[in-house]
Amino acid sequence: MMQWYVICAVTLILVLLFLWLWQQQKQLAEHLRQKIQTQDKNLLDLKAELQLQHEAIHELRTGSLGVGQKVQTLVRQLQETQAKQDEMEEHDPDSKLYGHAAKLAQQGASIEEIVEECELTRGEAELLIQLHRQSN
């Protein structure tokens, strides 16, 4: 009969141990499930953030392409304007004299030097020198 009590006690201990292990396993499974849910949410958040970053990069690329095209257009227009100005200066002998006079004024030439070299009136030479001083 003593064996019967020992067997019952051991069986009871084993059942209690089994129940305790089963409870521990359930808690661990729940804990892991919660961790997986948290990581899934974090992953979704990161994917959304990555998508926003991709969109921002796309907008920047598109914007920079537009700016690049505008710069190219402005450079082309500037070159065309410069070419037209050069052409006008070549066909207008007076503009050559004024261009030379402006360079002399920038170099610090006197009014008399400008009048003699460029065949300008004294008033024109004075005006060029005043304009040069104002621009500096």
From TrEMBL:
Residues 29-91 form a coiled coil. Pfam families: DUF2802. Keywords: Coiled coil. InterPro entries: DUF2802. The keyword Coiled coil applies. This is DUF2802 domain-containing protein.
